[in-house]
Amino acid sequence: MTRRTDASTTTPGQSTLGEGMGEQFRVIAELAGDIAFSIDLPTHTLRYLSPAFSSSFGHTRDALQAAIAGAHEDLGPLGMVLAGSTGAPGERRTQEIDIRNADGHPVGLQVISTIVQDGDGGQSLVGLLRDLTPQRTHLADQRRFASMLNHEFRTPLATIDGAVQRLEATAQAADEPTRQRYRKIAVATDRLIAMLDEYLSPDRMAAIGKVRQPHTIAPGELLEAGAAQVREAGREATVEADALPLALRGEPEGLRLALKVLVDNALLYSPSGSRVSLGARRSGNGVEFFVRDEGEGVPPEDAACIFDKGYRGRNADGLAGSGLGLYMARSIVDVHGGMLRLAESNGGAEFRLWLPALEDGGQQRLASSSPSSDNRSDQ
Predict the structure, then answer these.
(1) Which long-range contacts (CB under 8 A, 24 or more apart) does 152-157 make?
(2) Maximum alpha-carbon separation in the chain
């Protein structure tokens, strides 16, 4: 069954390969562990197939040729993809399929292909076959590990939760500081259980890899999610936005989480009746978001360390938290080729989050050449 199809266009002039250069690319692909192929068009005659195809899957070159002709059940999905490939020369197509090896075991394959012009004026379908078994095994290991963590953490947390509920129920004679300590334990326990439900639940783990995940999000949608979070907390949100590009490339859940951390901090470190301001504007080849509160701001002595793992500033005394929020947010942003920094502000704290935008042609430029390369100080 075909699971995914992407198409993109290569740079003009790159679709014709000489024989010597084609051989070099085959060698490079095979050194990387991929299986190269070349098929004559329109006859769909298999011209070249890496020897690793037979050693990896147990099927012969003739078996693949039969599959292209529609006469081989185990390799049927691969044959259908190769026989049905169409498009303009240089158009890159990526598909994920399942076949069966010679022993009858299922194997996931990624098929990357394009049509090239031959030197004699004809055309060939060339590409790579990539065994997805290691990737799928890794994902399965991740799910098992997450499930184990979920179980190992949930059991003691349930014990703590039950114990603190009993303590609260029988604490009529306890003094106020003791009751407050019970309440802090209960709140912290609820927070940890909620994190398990959100990030390590069996349902969430089972969904990973089953469907193609969204890989773009509109800047306005991300900004509105932050504003909604402020309003849900009973606070006033002001939003400033210039004309923005249509999309950012990235994992929407991760980007929402990064912005959520900044809004959480703004709500936590500012007076309950104060406003939280959010905004977004074009900046270079991307979009810069800001989240600004009306609190006391980040103490100067903490500014250089607030993104460090487990670091909590001096103004965090008595407030819930683990010192991981900003560290996690910056890690997410870094993965997406963006930057997160603390900006200079006359009052309150202001964080700025820069993310690369999709160009009109669908390409994404990363942040390495951006003038705002210092994540810790304003420019």
Answers:
(1) 153/192, 153/196, 153/200, 154/193, 154/196, 157/189, 157/192, 157/193, 157/196
(2) 94
Environment class of residue 70 by beta-carbon count within 10 Å: exposed (0-12), middle (13-18) or buried (19+)?
exposed
pTM: 0.45
Cβ-Cβ contacts under 8 Å for 266 (sequence gap 6 or more) = 230, 276, 291, 292, 293, 295, 349
Q: How many residues does the chain have?
A: 379
Using CA atoms, how far apart are residues 163 and 176, in angstroms rounded to an integer? 18
Q: Which of 241, 255, 242, 230 is nearest to 340 (CA)?
A: 255
Going by their DSSP bridges, the two strands 275-283 and 236-241 should be labelled as parallel
Alpha-helix runs per DSSP H in 251-316: 252-268
pLDDT classification of 16: cutoffs 50, 70, 90: very low
Rounded to an integer, the average pLDDT of 243-251 is 82
As a whole number of Å, the CA-based R_g of the chain is: 27
Residue 274's SS3 state is: coil
Q: Let me know: does 33 contact 55? Beta carbons within 8 Å.
A: no
